[in-house]
Design goal:
Shape: flat
Distance between the termini: 61 Å
Oligomer: single chain
Radius of gyration: 34 Å
Structural class: mainly alpha
Helix content: 55-70%
Order of helices and strands: HHHHHH
Largest sheet: none
Strand content: under 5%
Length: about 200
Amino acid sequence: MSEPDKHEPDPAIPPLDTIDDSQRVPPPRRPAPPRPRPIKTTDDIPLGVIAAFGVVGLVVLLLTLKWGIPKGIDWYHHQDWAWASQWTATVADPVHAYLSAHTVGLPLTATSAFVIWQGVGIVSLALSWFTGAVGARLTWTAHGACSVFMVWDAAPAAGRPVAAALTVLAWTIGSLFALRGLSLRPLIHLHNHNHPAR
């Protein structure tokens, strides 16, 4: 019995053909499903429904003007809003005391440093909110950290944790606006260099 030739291809295995990457054709794109036709008020909603919504909206507006706004104003005048001024003083007074104690011997007065502290906070908050600039957001973050440190250092020892916590809460409420849209998820860009440009 003779041994089979090892160089002959086995007929059970199909031949392997390769093509160059530059000759590969990407699969055709599937067409996007058709978009639904937008609703046109005058064509798709009956006139009676539009009239009913208009009447209900007018009644709600009149009730709000006649009853809701006076009740809201009356409620506002009977509320004790001292908590807001007390919260502000809980944050601002220790900051002012800290600046007074640590500006001795400087050409900058404690009052000027306090005004700068307020101005930097307001401007960085506004710029962060409207522009989303990285520098403004970093300034807002540094302002918040410095504020918490100053309040912790200068607040009375018995109320120090509460004063620092209220400062953190005030800063985080401002951060809802200053840091809006900020995401900690990494943004990954994929580039296919083998795909020919169209």
